[in-house]
Every structure is written in structure tokens, then in C-alpha cells.
Amino acid sequence: MTIDVSTPGIQPGRLSAAQYERNFCDAHPPLTVFQAKNEADRCYYCFDAPCQTACPTGIDVPSFIQRIADGNVRGAAHTILESNPLGGMCARVCPTEVLCEQACVRNTSEDKPVEIGALQRFATDSYFQKPGAPLFTRAASTGKKIAVVGAGPAGLACAHGLARRGHDVVLFDAQPKAGGLNEYGLATYKTTDDFAQKEVAWLLSIGGISVRHGKRLGRDMELTQLLKDYDAVFLGMGLAGVNSIGIAEPQASGLRNAVEFIAELRQARDYAEVPVGRHVVVIGGGMTAVDAAVQSKKLGAESVTMVYRRGASDMGASGHEQAWALENGVHIRHWATPVEVLAEAGAVRGVRFAGTRMEADKLVAGSEEFTVEADMVLKAIGQSPDAQALGTLVELRQGRIVADAQQRTTHAKVWAGGDCCHGGRDLTVEAVEHGKVAAQSIHQALCA
User: How many CB atoms lie within 10 A of CB 397?
Assistant: First the structure.
């Protein structure tokens, strides 16, 4: 491979201000009142609704859609947020095409489900724009105090559920802002207008929740001390580590973690300040890989290639997300694994890959190799737990916390939920359900 090292590599400001504005506007604009009414009228309002069963948080979908059809948007928002206190963000990022909308009975007759996610966003957005009186109020104080570690979807849902029941909650988070992946880990075009922080502000408005930023478990506090100071502890700190790509990683500019790249873009005051390469390679096949790849293209990269070791059906990203990547000019190559990150003069110049195949139910690399030119390589092959701070206080399996159906761990005073738990699907909506269930379980345990 011959690479022209004299051409500009990673740099900011590749596009005009107008192009940045177009590229990072809302990827899927919300429904108008007229559109929402028409879409709501398509619902059959099933009595035994499969869409509700398919929702991890159990939202009464026919009920909230019926309220939209009747013009009672506030009532629709109440129905949604009663079951899912982060229903506004979930409406934006949930893979509804494989959850509620896949279960919609309209699929059998029209091959087009009711747009449940869009209707959910319409209802919650309408409420947040003109909230009026609070939908929920705080119960009388119980005098109990709970520590919630991690202000992501699981921690926020748990804190809100506990506060509603009259408990005092202290929410600890390592980041300067609450929200977890909703704030730091989602593509910018999925959650515009600082929506993550607006939702956090609404959640905290219930009262009884104090937030302490810059507090990481194992660095700034210990679980043993929390157990002494609080009546119960909920662990929802997500995944702090980033998986290795399994080969030598040279100390070269341009090689970085996709999650850090996404977080930098999310926190940027001006998209023109975020540098991107001319040729970008993203290693991985999940939602993070798609978000990193598409945003690289939207920042002005000339070519972006996603490389995944298996086939399209095995990718963590849904078919909808894969199609979105292709629509935005991302090239996806399957059945290949990285062999070497090429670097020259302290800068990334490309990645050498080997073709892969399945052999006796095992993935193996073949002798056929190819090289993809790149001045930026983003690693997006998953995150891993950082369980050192937990010691032996709770049972772990494959580095993640073991919790039962009520999110109770093996320690009587500790509950856990979200990505740090073993066996989860790494979905925002599932993390919310974990937090919601844990709040109910903690309440029952403390008030027994």
C-alpha cells in the first residue's frame, strides 16, 4: 500500500457552518400535531397488546396512543412517564423496530407498524415544552437515605422512583453532568437541543435527590463506607472500560476509542472544533460503531469504513442502524478482523485486515489480507466492567454484577442495574426498567 503522507490528516473545520448545521440537526424530526393524530388513528388499541408486552418498561402503548387520538397529550405523557421516567429519551434512541413496533399487529396486514416511537416522542416532547403542574409528587419523607452510584438511565430511574416514595437519595456520578450514556454516549443528531439535560432536570424536580459529581467508586468513595452511611445502595455505574482490539496498538495519533470520540462531539460547543480524519476506519459492528462512523462522515471525512468480523446478521447494530450508516455514505465490510494498525512518523496510516470465516462453529482468520487506508481509527468493539471497586462484597459473573429479577445482589443492602449487570442487553430502556424495579424492591425492603 502506498499512502500520500503529505496530504492533510486529522483536522477540524472541514465543512462550512451551514453544512455542520444541516448535518447535525435532528435526524428524525418530530411529528406535527396533524401527523400524530393521523398516526394515532392507525392503532387498533388491542386489548392484549403485543406492543406493550414487547416494551421492557411495560408502557401501556394502546392507552397513550388513544389519548393522543383524543387530544389528551398530557394524559398520554403521564401514561408513558409513569412506566418509563426516561420515556422522552427512549422515544429517540430505543430500537423500536425490534421491540414494540416489531410486535405491532399492523405488520401482519400492512407490513407497516404504527410509529409508536414517534408518537411517544410527540407526547413527551409536548409535555416538556409546556409541563404545567407536576405529573408526579413526592410522598411524605420516610427518613431513609439511599446511595445511587451512577447517574445514567438505571441510576436516574432508580433515584426518581425512590424519591417519589419519600426516600432521600444521594446520586453519585464520575462525570460533570448527569445522564450517563444519554449525555455522553449517543450520536449528537439523535438528541438535539440539550434534551438529555432537560430530561435530567425534570427527573430531579421531584425533589429529594442531591447529585454529587466527580465521584467515582473506588477512587473517591468506597462501597464499604456507603454501606455504613446509607440504608441501601444501588449500583448503576455502567461500563467504564473499553475492550482491546486484540492486537498491538501503536502509540500513534489517530488511534482512539469510539466512545471518547462520541463524548467529545457531544460536549463540543462548536462542531467545527472537533477534528476528524480524511479517511476513517471504525472497528466494530454495534450501535457505538454506527454512531462513530456516521458522525465522522457528518464531520467531513471523505471516506468512512466500518469493519466487522462476522456477517450483517450478527452485528449488534440493528438493521435500521446499518441502513442509516449506508444511507450516510459509510462503507461496511464484513468478515474481517484487524491484524495490524499501520503507523508512520507517529501517526496512523491504515489498518491491515485478514478475512474471516466460520469453521466448525468457530470464527477463524484466513490467509487473505487487505489494507484500508486511514488517518483515524476508532475502536468500537464494546466496553467492559471495572469491578475492582466492588471487591468481594457482591457476586460477579464475567466481571459483571449478578442480580435477581428484583435487581437484588448477593449483598442484602445492595441492588444493581443497567450495563454493569450480568445478562443485560445494553439497552437504555432495559436499564430504566432495572432502575424502576430496584426502586420498588428497595422501598419494600426498607419499609418491611
Answer: 10
For the domain made up of 145-240+385-446, the CATH class stated in words is alpha beta
Residue 217 has which C-alpha cell?
467508586
Give, as one character, the DSSP assignment of residue 140: P
* Residue 435, amino acid: G
How far lies 223's CA from each of 226, 232, 344, 434, in Å?
5, 11, 45, 20
User: Which ranges in the chain are annotated with CATH 3.50.50.60?
Assistant: 145-240+385-446, 242-382
Tens of pLDDT, residue by residue over 173-225, are: 999 999 999 999 999 999 999 999 999 999 999 999 999 999 999 999 999 99
Nearest alpha-carbon partner for 56 in 16, 109, 126, 103: 103
Q: Under CATH, which number does the domain 242-382 receive?
A: 3.50.50.60
The CATH fold of domain 33-129: Fumarate Reductase Iron-sulfur Protein; Chain B, domain 2 (1.10.1060)
**Alpha-carbon torsion 374, 327, 430, 191, what sign?**
positive
For the chain, the residue count is 448
| pTM of the predicted structure, to 2 decimals | 0.94
Strand segments (E) across 41-144: none
Please give the grid coordinates belonging to residue 330.
Answer: 459509510
Neighbours of 137 (CB within 10 A): 9
Residues 6+ apart with CB under 8 A from 308: 284, 285, 289, 314, 315, 332, 333, 334, 335, 336
